[in-house]
Design brief:
By secondary structure, the protein is an alpha+beta fold. The protein has 2 domains: 19-145, MutM-like, N-terminal (N-terminal domain of MutM-like DNA repair proteins, Alpha-Beta Barrel), CATH 3.20.190; 166-297, Helicase, Ruva Protein, domain 3. 25% of the residues lie in helices and 20% in strands. It is built from 8 helices and 11 strands. A 5-stranded antiparallel sheet has the order 1-6-8-7-2. Residues 1-14, 103-109 and 251-257 have low confidence and may be disordered. The protein binds a DNA duplex (16 and 16 nucleotides) through residues 15-18, 21, 49, 73, 88-93, 114, 131-136, 176-178, 182, 187, 194-197, 247, 249-250, 291-294.
DNA sequence: ACTGTACCCTGTAGGC
DNA sequence: TGCCTACAGGGTACAG
């Protein structure tokens, strides 16, 4: 393996899955993809979570990427052909960007385990998709079918857009007995929130993850004070995380400026047994399981 | 319509 | 050192 400083000069390591992380990945990929043309696409296995599309490489090669956008936790590369390359990182999907070709064998990362797809661009840039658990996937969809596609058609509002309002939340939550945690994690309601940011938004808003979603609405479907308080906290936690370049829970790489920093600012996530950071609260963070996933919260100040 | 559970797959951390 | 279990940011398919 080459010394880290040499490797880092040509490598950018970009991480992972909820909305802020996907947005950071998108921003990192834009310079390497937008306006660039696929030269060669290497596919190292037939499937990720789903089978890769038939004629995957041929449908990409020679095509220009007009635009790379994000919708919820999805990345969408719009190609000149009218195809859209839809990508999801699952739990462990990562992209590595290299600005120019390197000599064969010159880098220990070459042919690294779980490198499943490599995009070679005509300008010499390389983008490698690595995903140990293979919960991520890539699909090719015709632009005209995007809106009706089952993976995209049912997605809820973008939380950073004006579509997320207390009124919207109340309307969707009215009469629902599901826990507030499960409700906010549902991609059909809000697109892009995951386990970390749901926990953190509820903590900031002082709302218990175990209460019913219906408590966001009055009997007539108007937003309650809680719904009104929750919306800006959802936005704030996502924006704070994006500013911090996302959350990295593991040290896959050396610190090189591309690792997220928001994990250092969690109020509750992964902090079981620790003190609630809220001034004057004095509670202890607890971990419970909801819908098969960990929820972290402060039972003292989240009601 | 709503739960809750199992499952997809690999890696890691911690107990013994 | 190893072996075992629990757990991990995602989503879906069931059964009840």
């Amino acid at each position: 393996m080459l010394p880290a400083p040499i490797r880092q000069r040509h490598d950018e390591c970009l991480l992972m899955p909820e909305l802020p992380e996907v947005e950071i990945v998108r921003r990192g990929l834009v310079p390497a993809l937008e306006g660039k043309v696929f030269d060669r696409v290497d596919q190292h296995r037939p499937d990720l979570r789903f089978p890769l599309p038939t004629r995957f490489a041929p449908r990409l090669e020679g095509q220009k990427v007009e635009r790379l956008e994000r919708r919820g936790k999805y990345l969408l590369a719009h190609l000149a052909s009218g195809d859209v390359l839809l990508m999801h990182l699952g739990m462990t999907g990562r992209f590595r960007v290299r600005k120019r070709a390197k000599q064969a064998g010159a880098n220990a990362a070459e042919g690294a385990k779980h490198d499943h797809v490599v995009f070679h661009m005509q300008d010499g840039g390389h983008i490698t998709y690595n995903d140990p658990r293979r919960f991520g996937f890539m699909l090719l969809i015709d632009r005209s079918e995007l809106a009706q596609h089952p993976l995209l058609g049912n997605l809820g509002v973008e939380p950073l857009s004006e579509a997320l309002t207390p009124e919207y939340l109340a309307a969707r939550a009215r009469g629902k007995k599901v826990s507030l945690k499960s409700f906010l994690s549902d991609q059909r309601i809000i697109a892009g929130l995951g386990n970390i940011y749901v926990c953190e938004a509820l903590y900031r808003a002082g709302l218990s993850p175990t209460r019913a979603a219906s408590t966001l609405a009055t009997a007539t479907g108007e937003p309650t004070e809680d719904a009104t308080a929750l919306v800006p906290e959802i936005r704030a936690v996502l924006q704070d995380a994006i500013r911090a370049k996302g959350s990295s829970l593991r040290d896959y790489r050396q610190a090189n400026g591309e690792r997220g920093g928001f994990q250092n600012r969690f109020g509750v996530y992964n902090r079981t047994g620790k003190r609630c950071p809220r001034q004057g609260c004095g509670g202890k963070i607890e971990r419970i399981v909801q819908a098969g996933r960990s929820t972290f919260y402060c039972p003292r100040c989240q009601n």
